[in-house]
Design a protein that fits this description.
2 domains; 4 helices; single chain
């Protein structure tokens, strides 16, 4: 069995994620230094920061991927769109197991 992981946004790159991490680390240091002066502090785990970043990216992503829609529309119009029935069946079984009971 193979697994494919793809981005839901074409413009997300490793460098943008790294830049975001660096920016967040700097913000954390500033917050930590300010908190030390105030007496209270909060430190988020790496996992919490990654979840927050993923949430921000998901909310910033458009609801409709217009480039994908247009490409599919062209394929249907040209008669070149082909459905992989095996892949479709695998996804149906995995995502909607109640359909087959």
């Amino acid at each position: 069995m193979s697994m494919e992981i793809s981005s839901t946004r074409g413009d997300v790159s490793l460098s943008s994620v790294v830049q975001t991490e660096v920016r967040e680390e700097r913000e954390d240091l500033r917050t930590e230094n300010t908190a030390k002066a105030d007496g209270d502090s909060v430190k988020l785990s790496q996992q919490a920061r990654l979840l927050m970043e993923a949430s921000r990216e998901a909310q910033a992503a458009p609801d409709v991927r217009q480039d994908k829609v247009e490409a599919l529309r062209r394929q249907v119009a040209d008669g070149t769109y082909q459905v992989d029935s095996r892949l479709l069946a695998e996804h149906l079984i995995r995502e909607e197991p109640g359909l087959f009971r």
